[in-house]
Amino acid sequence: MLFFAENAPEFEGYNISPVLYEYIVIADEYMLFTISITAWEDEYIDGWYTVWFDLYTAVYRVDKDGKNLTLLSED
């Protein structure tokens, strides 16, 4: 497991998609990975449609043994 859900921020009032793990890079001693959380809103303009948007993206580094989870950047 790369990431525990309790480490992700909470976003009240949003329709949240599952966390997506992207751009997994495995080096000799560690792994880098990006998590993305997307959200959607249903809109009504000439009929219903759904708008998707990125709510949160973060890059993490973790040792291969699962220790030292480090947040490198987030948006």
What does this structure look like?
This protein has 75 residues and is mainly β. The protein has one domain (15-74). It is 0% helix and 60% strand. The chain contains no helices and five strands. Strands 1, 2, 3, 4 and 5 form a five-stranded antiparallel β-sheet that branches. It is elongated and about 55 Å long.
Summed up:
The chain is mainly β. Helices cover 0% and strands 60% of the residues.
Q: Helix segment count?
A: 0
Please give the alpha-carbon distance between the first and last residues: 23 Å
Task: Let me know the largest β-sheet.
Answer: 5 strands, antiparallel
Residue ranges: pLDDT <50 for 5 or more in a row? none
Number of strands: 5
Helix content: under 10%
Shape descriptor reads elongated
Mean pLDDT: 78
Helices and strands, in N-to-C order? Answer: EEEEE
Number of domains: 1
Structural class: mainly beta
Calculate Rg over CA atoms. Answer: 15 Å
Strand content: over 45%
List the SSEs and their pairings.
Layout: E1 15-16, E2 20-26, E3 30-44, E4 48-63, E5 70-74
Features:
elongated, mainly beta, five-stranded antiparallel β-sheet, 75 residues, 0% helix, 5 strands
